[in-house]
Amino acid sequence: MDDYPILEMKNIQKAFPGVLANDNISLEIRRGEVHALLGENGAGKTTLMNILFGIYHPDHGEILINGKKTFIHSPQDAINEKIGMVQQHFALVPSFTVAENVILGLKNFGFIIKTKQVEQQIKELGERYSLPVRPKARVWTLSVGERQRIEILKLLYTGANILILDEPTAVLTPQETRQLFSAIRKLVKEGSSVIFISHKLDEVLEISDRISVLRNGKNTGTLNREEVDRRTLVQRMVGRDVLMDQEKPKVEPGPVKIEVKDLTVKNDKGLTAVNNLSLEIHGGEILGIAGVAGNGQKELAEAIYGLRPIETGKIQMAGEDLHHRSIKKRIQSGLSFIPQDRKSIATCPNLSVMFNIFMKNTIPGLKKSSAWNIQIKQMHEKTRELIRNFSISTPSSKTRVRYLSGGNLQKVVLARELSSNPSVIIAEHPTRGLDIGAMEFVYQALLEEKKKGSAILLLAGELYEIFRLSDRVAVIYEGEVMGYTPPDPSYTEKIGFMMAGTREDSIHEN
Amino acid sequence: MKIKIEKRLNTPRYLSLVVPVVSIFAALLIMFVILTIFFMGRIGSFQGAFSETVSAYKELITWPFFNQYGLYSTISKMVPLAFVALGLSFAYKMKIWNIGGEGQLYMGALAATWAALFVFRGITSPILLITLVAIFSAIAGALWALIPALMKAYAKTDEIVVTLMLNYVAIFWVDYLVYGPWRDPKGFGFPGTAAFPEPAMLPTFFDGNVHIGIFIAIAFAILLQYIDVKTQWGFNSRIVGDNKKAATYSGIKVKKYTIISLVVSGAIAGLGGGVQMMGMQHRLMHGFSPGYGYTAIIIAWLAKLNPIAVIFVSFLFGGLLVGNDQLQMFYKLPISLISIFQGLVLFCLLGGEAIAAYRLKIEKAEEVPANE
Ligand SMILES: Nc1ncnc2c1ncn2[C@@H]1O[C@H](COP(=O)(O)OP(=O)(O)OP(=O)(O)O)[C@@H](O)[C@H]1O
Ligand SMILES: [Mg+2]
Asked: C-alpha angle with apex B285: B282 to B288, nearest 5 degrees?
């Protein structure tokens, strides 16, 4: 890292209707550094980066690249200035191949596209930075991790040397995160600069050279890695200490609330994703599912909820077979689902927060409401109450949710799913993209539901989260349960073996 | 100084009023030039052509909107437009693009004629007969829309193509009937059926100049507005319109919503056909609609799918049609010029909408870096 600032953002100001997203922010990026941007949900991180990438234009302020004042009007301008960005919710064309997606959007390509050549170059780039991809594969067949590698290679392909990565690790498995970090290290060694956004403090502390913390649209200052620890960062971000690792409440398990028997489910490609799987969860119990992403977690959740047909087997809720129950009936009998893909299935981007809260019509407490006389006013009131309770940062209950920050969108989904007195909750990556305070809030909310007697199926990528919440841990591999362990970090190694496909009983034998 | 065009993040409210008004003015202005050139060819002098155009314009605006009898015609003309546009907006809310309003209107008219002239021949009670005829026309429109609805829900067929094709089928079917089996033997060979019996004609007011269809249309607009903002259906239809996957996830049966919205949309357009028969035409004729079903698409769109706004926009377009008839009659303008005018209005409106999505931004000179 040199002290030489390759990029300076000075006094950047950006207001949206009802919010000052960036308030006089100055930021300096040096050559060859990993610069982390931290901040609570809605602090303005994505907005600031969108300004740098030319998606938004600042109301005030200027950008200097290599000391020279530069105007970035569009992402094309940014690319010309060798700035690249991987969006928080990235967008590839699923029916195209990897190579085609890389080519897409490159202007200086002429009319004849040399796909072969591009494929070769992508492959080489991938090998050089240890980001393995298959250039000929169609994007829809790839995992999120692979998709993200493509996004990054796309930037490298355009020649970017300032890389903006907006919460890249939120969707990655721990192994993929390792891979990404070694690529980042290689890149900065070669003189590129990386702006890294994440809510995971351990990652930030591991990879970054300097850290800037945003709070309410302001930059609270840039710190060197050596000067900080977890606690100072949290205090800077939230303005107070966040209590963590409290005791789990002890709840006497009730009767079985949900039971899955010999379930087999196929994935989108038509291959078996859940294989003859059985499990049961009692009321007042949280069952954590540990496993490498793509081992049937998503399909299991969707099958229970009714979004995916089942091949064989049975799903029972409170002793009743769900087989011929519509999703609506399942919702009415208290099934709640927090899907990992909140943008495309769990929310309506162009509708207001209120619509998204009442989307399932499950929030109790409306007076004199009927199908022929819905009470919009009361619904807005109730929404405002939830906005307060879940501290969703939004200008109003009438704001379209597409304008919310990533974390706040997730809070809207959580507010809806946890406020309906659910009896069974399927929680798929419930804290993905949330800041520390919000994460802790969600843990409390889930534990609260558990105390009230809900059965909770927790599908999370992070073992930390699973240990923190679950009463039992099931390890899944290729759609089968390999075995169970208590929720304790001392079992991490055993879980690791099972995640790689070794059965519990065969571990004992060795 | 530097002027820059950038896309708006959100469109301010006032623009939804300003854009159509400015666009219509622009269309009137361009048409003024075209008309003047046309009249120059006819009259020879620029002076004469100019004053002829001015007086034509006076006619175009004063007659349909400021003259008692012109107003009557405007109101009569707007009724079928309003019905079809109300029906279309209902489906468009869910992003289901029914462009078969014309065909549904024709089928409604056909069923109304069948009911009035054949099925319920002997009935003499006006209330009973009118109700039955209205029901028949609505059902016919609904069935005509059911075809694309089922195809869309179960075979994923594109509704735009199917509804459009069915327009031609409906029109040819009506033509077959009015030229063939249903032709009035006492009609001097004119392609139309016999007149409706007295009890199947809608009551009128203003000395028989306006029929009550306008009130039915307004009542429907209010009902549809209520459904939109106060019922679970209206609420859910927005969810379906915005994100079908999220709707499924919410337990909304997207197929059911698709089918119902198209069918209701067709029923309202069909009812419009029945009302037009009972109130205005009193007989089914070849080409009784000068493309109401297509004009209605523009109306629904301009009204931003708001049922109450549909009534007002229909009034404007009704007036435009009346004014055009007037020009055609008194200034002997060829029909093609009238079509040009309608095309211009549409063109300016679309252009206006597109331009309104952007805004000009003026940057101060000192911000421009030296190397630019
Ligand atoms: N296009 C927009 N229109 C209106 N408001 C917006 C828009 N984009 C962002 N905002 C608002 O600006 C604020 C900052 O949002 P931003 O996305 O930058 O937050 P963030 O720090 O990236 O949060 P997260 O960690 O949740 O992703 C939020 O209150 C958000 O609602
Ligand atoms: Mg963000």
From this structure: 90
Instruction: Kindly provide the residue ranges of all beta strands, DSSP E only, lying in A283-374, ordered along the sequence.
Output: 285-290, 312-317, 320-321, 335-338
Q: Which residues of chain A have pLDDT under 70?
A: 1-2, 90-93, 105-113, 242-246, 508-510
Structural domain includes residue B52: yes
For the domain made up of A5-238, give the CATH fold.
Rossmann fold (3.40.50)
In chain A, where the domains are located? 5-238, 256-509
Residue to mutate among B8, B10, B235, B368, with most A CBs inside 10 A, is: B235
In a domain, residue B109? The reply is yes
In a domain? residue B278: yes
Q: Which fold has domain A256-509?
A: Rossmann fold (3.40.50)
The bound ligand whose nearest atom lies closest to the alpha carbon of A433 is 1
For residue B119, how many other CB atoms are within 10 A of its CB? Answer: 12
Q: Do B243 and A348 touch (CB under 8 A)?
A: yes
- CA of A435 from ligand 1 middle (Å) equals 13
Tell which A residues from 112 to 151 touch B, by Cβ distance under 8 Å. none
Same domain, residue pair B34 and B111: no
Mean pLDDT taken over chain B:
89
Beta strands in A239-319 (DSSP E): 256-266, 272-282, 285-290, 312-317
Protein residue whose Cα sits closest to atom 10 of ligand 1 = A403
Quote the Cα angle for B2-B7-B9, to 5°. 125
Q: Do B259 and B110 lie in a common domain?
A: yes
pTM of this structure: 0.86
Residue B250 has its nearest CB partner, among A16, A360, A376, at A360
B275 and B137 share one domain: yes
Residues of B in contact with A57 (CB under 8 A): 6, 361
Ligand showing the shortest atom-to-Cα distance for residue A48: 1
Q: Say if ligand 1 is within 6 A of residue A404 CB.
A: yes
Based on the fold, state whether residues B255 and B352 are members of the same structural domain.
Answer: no
In this structure, are B350 and B255 located in the same domain? no
Chain B contact present for A490, CB below 8 A: no
Which residue has a Cα nearest atom 12 of ligand 1? Answer: A21
Ligand with minimal distance to A88 CA: 2
Measured between CB atoms, does B229 come within 8 Å of chain A? Answer: yes
Hey, is A427 helix, strand or coil? strand
Ligand 1: atom nearest CA of A48 is: 18
CA–CA min distance B233, chain A (Å): 7
Q: Comparing B343 with A275, which gets the higher pLDDT? A: A275
* Structural domain boundaries, residue B268: 78-318
* Residue A397, ligand 1, Cβ within 6 A: no
**According to the model, what pLDDT value does residue B10 have?**
60
ipTM summary value: 0.87
Taking one residue from A and the other from B, the number of pairs with CB-CB distance under 8 angstroms is 81
Q: What are residue A317's DSSP bridge partners?
A: A258, A320
State which H helix or E strand residue A60 sits in: strand A60-65
CA A423 to chain centre: 25
Q: What pLDDT was estimated at residue A47? A: 95
Structure tokens at A139: 């994007």
* Pair B287, B343 in one domain: no
Residue B291 domain-assigned?
yes
The reply to whether A5-238 and A256-509 are identical in fold is yes
A94-120 pLDDT per residue, tens: 777 777 777 776 655 555 667 778 788
Q: Are residues B91 and B223 in the same domain?
A: yes
The whole-angstrom separation of Cα A463 and Cα A294 is 16
Number of domains in chain B: 2
Which residue is closest to A326 within chain B, CA to CA?
B251
Separation in Å, CA B59 to CA A93, B44, B362: 55, 22, 42
Task: Please check whether residues B113 and B179 belong to one and the same domain.
Answer: yes
End-to-end CA distance of chain A, in Å? 48
Parallel, antiparallel, or unpaired: how do β-strands A424-428 and A335-338 relate? parallel
